Amino acid sequence: MDERIRKCLECGSKSIVTDPKHAELYCADCGVVIAENIVDLGPEWRSYDAEQASKRVRTGPPMSYRMHNKGLSTPTPGSLTRSKRLRGVIAMDSNEKTLSFALGEIDRMACALNLPGDIREITSLLYRKAAKRSLIKGRSIEELTSAMLHITCRQYGIPRTLKEIAAVSRMPLKKIRRAYIFLLHKLEIKLAPADPVCYIPRFCSELGLSDVIRERAIKIVCADKETIAAKGWAPTGTAAAAIYLASHLSGESVEEKNMAKVAGTTPVTIQKRYKELAARKSKLNTLSSPALQKGESFVAAIV
Description:
Blueprint: E1 16-19, E2 24-27, E3 33-36, H1 50-56, H2 81-91, H3 94-112, H4 117-132, H5 141-155, H6 162-168, H7 173-186, H8 200-207, H9 211-223, H10 225-231, H11 235-249, H12 256-263, H13 267-287, H14 290-302
Antiparallel strand pairs: 1-2, 2-3
């Protein structure tokens, strides 16, 4: 609330009410809105009793694992910028410098991939966990941070492939995959197979397809999810083939080259998965046809 606004500009009343729900400042007597879109200068947390409030009270921004000092450094005046920089560099040891560089790499790649802040926070925490177990020494920081970012995306269902992470990383795909397998083994992380359904909305959005195709492609994958998991199909190729099949069923044409470019796979893979999904769908439709169901019930009645 602006301290200068102490009375209503319309009627002169001093009954000024702050409405935090609508971010407005209005007069209680005449109802005129004095200010809009006011900024809440209070804390970002909520408390429901005095004990909870006393535990959450702090000064400055919240602690973050994305910063090497967790955001707990002491601020200095702006006039001492050069001395602050030199003092910070001198005070940091080799481990802190390595940690600062690694967290910067995580933040850079996450920004390039448009990942939310929670994913960056969890990946930074995963790096600290690996550093505590001495898994960082003797290995490239870039390939480890890239692999950790992929692990976090897999854990929380964010549709990002190793190829997409390698495109924004400074390391080749082969080394990132090697670090990915190494971290899964050492940190004892168990990941479920990637779900092709997670990739379908993003692919449809990039191709400019309708919601009807998206929903139909999701239904195609969900109807045959057990077979897809048993055969070990790549999720991106399966999602692209399901979209390709759904577009044909909806009467819209999508070029295989554009589909392969968006999905990061080849047209041959899409064509193979498309044929198998189409064959499975036609088989399921045949088994669920009304005429066949009547025949089966008739045979069952005879037996």
